[in-house]
Specification:
The complex is a heterotetramer, with two copies of chain A and two copies of chain C. Chain A is built from seven helices and 18 strands. Chain A is α/β, with parallel strands linked by helices. Chain A folds into two domains: 84 residues, Elongation Factor Tu (Ef-tu), domain 3, CATH 2.40.30; 161 residues, Nucleotide-binding domain of ferredoxin-NADP reductase (FNR) module (Rossmann fold, 3-Layer(aba) Sandwich). In chain A, the strands form four sheets. A seven-stranded antiparallel beta sheet of chain A has the order 1-7-4-5-6-3-2, with helices on both faces. A seven-stranded mixed beta sheet of chain A has the order 11-10-9-8-12-13-16, with helices on both faces. Chain A starts with a strand and ends with a strand. Chain C is α/β, with parallel strands linked by helices. Chain C has a single domain, classed as Aldolase class I (TIM Barrel). Chain C has an eight-stranded parallel beta barrel with strand order 3-4-7-8-9-10-15-16, surrounded by eight helices. In chain C, helix 3 links the parallel strand 7 and strand 8. In chain C, helix 1 runs parallel beside helix 2. The termini of chain C are far apart. The chains are: A alpha/beta, C alpha/beta. Chains B and D meet through strand 5 and strand 7 of B and helix 1 and strand 5 of D. One flavin mononucleotide binds next to strand 4 and strand 6 of chain D.
Chain lengths: 261, 261, 310, 310
Amino acid sequence: MRSIVRVTERVVETPSTVTLRFPFVAPAAPGQFVMIWIPGDDELPMSLSYTVGGSKGVTVKAMGDTSRRVQSIRAGDAVGIRGPYGNRFDMAPRRILVVGGGSGSAVLAPAAEAAVADGARVTAALGATQAPELLFRGRFDAMGAQVEVATDDGSEGTHGFVTTVAERLLGTEPFDAVWTCGPEVMMQKVAVAAASAKVPVYCSVERHMKCALGMCDACALGPYHVCVDGPVFPAERLLPLAEFAHAHRDPSGRRVPFGGH
Amino acid sequence: MRSIVRVTERVVETPSTVTLRFPFVAPAAPGQFVMIWIPGDDELPMSLSYTVGGSKGVTVKAMGDTSRRVQSIRAGDAVGIRGPYGNRFDMAPRRILVVGGGSGSAVLAPAAEAAVADGARVTAALGATQAPELLFRGRFDAMGAQVEVATDDGSEGTHGFVTTVAERLLGTEPFDAVWTCGPEVMMQKVAVAAASAKVPVYCSVERHMKCALGMCDACALGPYHVCVDGPVFPAERLLPLAEFAHAHRDPSGRRVPFGGH
Amino acid sequence: MSSLVADLAVRVGSLALRNPFLLASGIWGESGDSLAGAWAAGAGGVITKSIGSLPRAGYPNPTIEEYSTWGLLNAMGLPNPGMDEYPREISAARSHGALVIGSVFGSDAEEFARLARRIAETGVVAVELNLSCPHAEGYGTEVGSDPKDVEAIVRAVVGSVSVPVIAKITPNTSDAPALAVAAENGGAAAVSAINTLRALAIDTTLHRPVLAHGLGGLSGPAIKPVGLACVWQIYERVRIPVIGVGGISTAEDALEYIMAGARAVEVGTVIAHQGIGVFSRLVDGLSHRLDELGYASVSQAVGLAHGAGR
Amino acid sequence: MSSLVADLAVRVGSLALRNPFLLASGIWGESGDSLAGAWAAGAGGVITKSIGSLPRAGYPNPTIEEYSTWGLLNAMGLPNPGMDEYPREISAARSHGALVIGSVFGSDAEEFARLARRIAETGVVAVELNLSCPHAEGYGTEVGSDPKDVEAIVRAVVGSVSVPVIAKITPNTSDAPALAVAAENGGAAAVSAINTLRALAIDTTLHRPVLAHGLGGLSGPAIKPVGLACVWQIYERVRIPVIGVGGISTAEDALEYIMAGARAVEVGTVIAHQGIGVFSRLVDGLSHRLDELGYASVSQAVGLAHGAGR
Ligand SMILES: Cc1cc2nc3c(=O)[nH]c(=O)nc-3n(C[C@H](O)[C@H](O)[C@H](O)COP(=O)(O)OP(=O)(O)OC[C@H]3O[C@@H](n4cnc5c(N)ncnc54)[C@H](O)[C@@H]3O)c2cc1C
Ligand SMILES: Cc1cc2nc3c(=O)[nH]c(=O)nc-3n(C[C@H](O)[C@H](O)[C@H](O)COP(=O)(O)OP(=O)(O)OC[C@H]3O[C@@H](n4cnc5c(N)ncnc54)[C@H](O)[C@@H]3O)c2cc1C
Ligand SMILES: Cc1cc2nc3c(=O)[nH]c(=O)nc-3n(C[C@H](O)[C@H](O)[C@H](O)COP(=O)(O)O)c2cc1C
Ligand SMILES: Cc1cc2nc3c(=O)[nH]c(=O)nc-3n(C[C@H](O)[C@H](O)[C@H](O)COP(=O)(O)O)c2cc1C
Ligand code: FES
Ligand code: FES
């Protein structure tokens, strides 16, 4: 189940984001994640940012110490991969709005590519602190998506939150579905906006993970286990949960409120 | 691997021989055996005397205490069955002489039936202490085999050993193969007679068995393990062995010379 | 489904369970919602994650390694939110009607007693003592391998709480029954066996243990034969009820434990393979099997394999 | 096959083996022809069935129960022809060139010493002491669970024979390394671990244990993680070489044991699944894998997983 693979390529995507590519033949679908083991260090859940064929990839944003150490992996280094785990984005919708914040594009880009390949039309609302941090902007352009951006510092696109862009787009176009990944308060806002436009929203959420097998309870989110019931959830399942956008659990299982995003 | 089945039928075949039929769906071929567990008592290797379809059977001759207890099993009793194990009679020969002594017909009858169904012609030389002990005589008749018998007391057929009958038949007809099962000194005589007639001989042999998996060494016979390399052996493999027709091993692994037969 | 006649309700001492299938400690046991989910899925009772005095993050990942479907190696390292925070999870589970058994781990009799007292205040119906985690320094097997320690810990806990106390025995010992006898002498209402077997996996490419902690504990089908032997031997030595744990994935497995002497069973690893829906399959499967064999209740089958004169 | 470069020859103390794969005791070990067959199939050495003072028939059948391909339960009951008869089997094996290690079991130090002396006279290159069979009353684990007994038995044997003495340690204990240390103190040249795990199977239709003896020992893939943990822990506590046993069915499994600290390994149950041809597959597989990983010899890999600073 666990494969030891050597990283074939390391791509710096943005100042804070790095993609690692590696051979991994198990079939995978956009939305699914792997557990990536950095020998002697840790093992982390990471969405597959490349899901097609024998060369898969993950795209890591520098957050705390661990993700920084993941970023320091070089081509040729050995890592352990198990998975893919979790569910996938449903490819039925034909007119899709993707809303990504932070490293959210890591999972949204391959999903949007698959949808476009399947004949869907995709509009992407991408948010970042500043223009160079816009992740996979080129990938969205290349797949033929209509791209709108927001930056916290106004260095490109809308000055402010990507949620503002999303709200605007939802008011102007008839989408079948919204796919979103980013901080939970962001996803919550998107979900509320889409609800009034009666568009179903699917959120890819993160929780601390250990087993990834739906057993250890580390990733509990209300009645769900993100590792097997998710990571993709229809927003209407998340919105009623006291924890969604408010708290997660640390590795000990304690509830910890989310800081600002 | 182990099935608990209820015996459906108990047939007294001869004064000393009983057949037990039971449901057992695993495919089996003539020559193969099962380990039959009499709960609370013992587990013994027994050739399948009925190999076709979902109702299999074994035919047990009263020898020592254990086989007598096996014979006391009634319809409705539960027994454990694992297997089938071991190899099978090769069905290629078209003109076959079967030579059975004692309970040997238990394995030879289903093999001969299969050969006949396959278009072969079968001659059967059956030996017993006395006429009523001739096992499966009716079965050989029914399949259209030419049957010749020998009895120790002369109550039917040739007065004396079945080997005498076999030697005579080998001198008169061009057989492709001899299949034999019975006491080893008998099989040895058959093999020697057939060698001069240049007919290949296949012997079904017995050794004490425990695992039936080729592991525990209980059934060692020279370099072979009867449970996986046999129970059917070409005679030329057996004749060179110091043990064949001379000695077997008791449950402790000690060599014990065969008594008279 | 045909109408089921066999009675699945069991009593483990004074503890009445609607069926013998308990959620094992450490599986779906960190959050109250998950405990409630296991109860809703049909468990006869749910055992919490083992809770200690202070929050523990557990070991770094990798914390698990899978062997096909026959085994699972883990070294979680007893992660838990600590006894100050955890009661709210029990309240949440109980507010959904779940029958909760609280599991605790400590480093000595005094800590066990203190934790048991606190968890008992939350309304759990029993307390299980983790005397058997095979890979946590200073806890589990390290305090549960000597009968004298087991007796002292159990006695201290029994003196501190009014609910039944269940001692969870380690299989990593030469004499599990002696530990069970010690628990009985200490006043335990029941013993449960087994916890995981001390085990290890090595990655040969990286020439290092796979789990961050190195040693871990083996669970799943591979340990069922070992758990059965422990329950069998314990049943012959104690009068208190025995709860069977280890490698149960079918009703037939559970019935093996019951016939070996278990009055109830706990299930863990199978949930990783079959999901929480396994509880209703186990319940239905056991009903059908008991019907088929002609037993009117689980109780009729308890320890039955010991009666078979050979 | 590509040309193999890795050196598979190993030394276990003074014992030189052409490769690290030994036939485990109790498998293909009752007859000299079978021992010779395992040698001809490529084993690095062959260990006899454990031999006692008198002939023993062993337990009645059923003596084994299979679990798919991941495990095997047995209670053979130490059948053996006794020390008066058995030397002829060793002679037969040796006449085919086989490197034979003699295994013996006794009920006390004196019996072990007497048996070891007699088997040593047959030309075996080493003696393995079965201190670990989990299901024979008065033998095996029953005499091998207390470090004091182990040390006394090993010391008595070492004083009686001039060939290396290997102590086979039980995993059915809370502290296998303590037993290994005791063996080392007694003068053992090596320790081997593990024997089977005490285990049980019950047939629910018949409500009785499947094996005639009731309790048995679990072997096969299921016990590999447990054997690895034992070898790992023993390696950290003794200076004498360790021989790994338990659940090896591939070269990769063997390399896990080697990296955990084993200088040689024994293989048993896999022969029931793959036949005796498994020896050449293991030999080829290990050569290829060592080549692939860049090790020139088995020795370079021994204990390597302990070096990985975490
Ligand atoms: C399903 C899923 C998909 C994800 N996909 C991506 C992705 O594509 N790109 C990306 O950059 N990040 C992704 N993450 C988040 C990632 O796993 C880490 O949580 C994130 O990198 C934060 O790490 P850190 O450096 O802040 O950890 P630290 O602040 O150093 O965290 C402290 C400790 O917690 C551990 N830890 C933190 N988060 C997790 C976690 N979720 N599970 C297990 N251990 C954790 C760390 O390893 C460390 O031991 C995903 C998370 C999940 C659950
Ligand atoms: C492959 C094979 C096929 C066989 N097929 C038949 C058959 O079709 N019909 C038939 O009547 N007999 C068959 N046998 C012989 C049968 O297994 C017994 O050996 C035989 O019934 C003698 O039993 P007994 O009553 O003499 O045992 P006892 O004299 O009571 O024997 C003493 C002990 O040895 C055990 N024992 C004896 N022989 C064996 C054995 N071979 N393996 C394991 N345990 C043994 C007994 O159970 C008992 O424990 C076959 C044997 C083998 C190896
Ligand atoms: C991931 C995991 C975590 C566990 N945590 C605990 C625990 O906290 N306390 C405890 O007593 N047992 C714990 N166990 C042991 C189980 O409760 C159970 O005894 C063991 O896994 C055997 O049962 P199974 O084969 O059904 O899983 C844990 C087991 C696993 C697999
Ligand atoms: C059928 C069988 C018989 C065994 N007999 C012995 C024995 O006589 N002496 C001994 O020391 N170990 C004996 N063992 C234990 C093995 O030598 C070995 O330690 C154990 O089976 C684990 O290895 P494996 O998983 O490769 O089989 C026996 C094992 C089996 C399966
Ligand atoms: S990570 Fe263990 S249940 Fe999800
Ligand atoms: S019966 Fe065990 S090897 Fe044949």
